[in-house]
Amino acid sequence: MMTGTEITINYIIECLGLWWKQLSYTTWLYFALLLPVTAIVYQLMPRKNRKGVLLAASWFFFFSLSGFLLVANIAASVFVWAVGKGLDSVNNDPGLKRKEKQKKKKQVLFLGIVLLLLSLICFKYLDFMGMNIARLSKYAHMSFRWHALKLAVPVGISYYTLEAVAYITDVYSEKIPAEKSLFNIFLFMSFFPKLVEGPITRYSEADRLFAGEDIRVQDLAEGYQRILWGLFKKLVIADHLSPAVTQLFDGEYMDGGVALFAALLFTLQEYMDFSGSIDIAIGSARVFGIRLSENFRQPFFAKNASDFWRRWHITLGTFFKDYIFYPIAMSKPLLQFSLKAKNVLGKNVSRFITPTVALFFVWLSNGLWHGARWTYIFYGMYYFVLIFIENILEEPFLKALEALHLKETSLPVRVFRYIKLFFIVIIGEMFFRANSMSQGISMFKMIFTDLRFDMVIKHIQDIGIDRFGYIVIIAGLMVVAFVETVKEAGISLREKLSSAPIALRFAFWYVCIFVVIIFGAYGTGYDSMDLFYAQF
Hints:
Layout: H1 4-17, H2 19-22, H3 28-44, H4 50-66, H5 70-91, H6 98-124, H7 126-139, H8 157-172, H9 182-190, H10 192-195, H11 217-250, H12 256-287, H13 305-311, H14 314-329, H15 332-345, H16 347-350, H17 353-370, H18 374-403, H19 411-433, H20 437-449, H21 454-459, H22 467-488, H23 493-498, H24 502-519
Helix pairs in contact: 3-4, 4-9, 5-6, 5-8, 5-9, 6-8, 11-12, 11-22, 11-24, 12-19, 12-20, 14-17, 17-18, 18-19, 19-20
């Protein structure tokens, strides 16, 4: 007969034994063990050693998710550090003339970016490229076979590769000096709160990451509050939707109503999953006094597709704008071509050439960044076409409003734009989630040729969500909608809550904790869609 102490010890050992399978942003092992233990050790250490605590926690977190693929992150960090040092040495070489210096810097930058992208391609896209080349070779009557390598992908490689590219590009353009400390580069490239799903961080924003400042009570409180809000969105809403989304997209019965319902549920699931995980990431960093960039700004209040993407995955959008759109749009060949086109096609047409070409590469990169699937590439091209059309029609649309004596801010115009945008987003997410391009096209056709909802009504409780689940999801969505509406109006709920009596504040946060514990979706039925954006 075991004593209570022995049972407790055995339980702890069993939990730790399952660590490698359970450690993620949404498990108690993360926010109730890894994060607080790291914070306690961090605070107890002398200031100069606190970076070491964060790096040890980051590498441990990375290893728990990707094992010895941690070596890939370390190697990339050493390479990025060396490229930065190389650029710095060229910048400070007094023996080089200006043109020679610029030429040599471009060579170093080109080599750095190419090798970083080659690493990303090898891990994420090699099988995709090989299989598609093999398919094309059949049409050309050539003999080429590709045996899938199925390489394991280091966690967060899509995120830390973009951060690395941004760093060496900023050193090249002398926006920031090259980092002398390899230790700092290690920490920047693997900092565990932003490792799995971002936000994509610029090196110029990482000062406090290396400062080793004391943990403040306010940062600790606000960090865990943000984590709790993220857990609410992820566990109470997104994970309740996950089984239904999987069943609908994999199901046999399908008509236009089912297709539209599936697309709607996935849109809600993806937003709650991704924004929730970003809240957890930002809250985790805030515990240490580190402020990561915001990645969402009420995207469903956007007026069009362009505005939507300025509010959704903000750090990815700003990366593409700064490091793809502007360099291409301002490149000499494109500017010269645009100037020649102006003489042939006229000013009104030629003014769209430069931004359209740059926009094409931005959205091609956006689609490819999400993964090695044609549905992702189509997703990027889908938004490219829509935003191109919006850019052309925006001026005529404003003139039409003026003729109708309507303002952009008037209620009918805003309602029209919100409905249009919501439909655009839902269709885009339907293709994004589709198991194949053929399924996405089939679902899209059904919406216009077989739109009926009798199948949805008949099977609404047979898709992994029961009546209790629907109540929890709808209530959760109402809470999120209320919070985002208030934020869009410029009102800070946290500030208003902080001015309330302390007993009321504690009662509120305890209620929130129990809501997540009681109404969160747990168990094997909800494990398959853990952190959707982590796969990118």
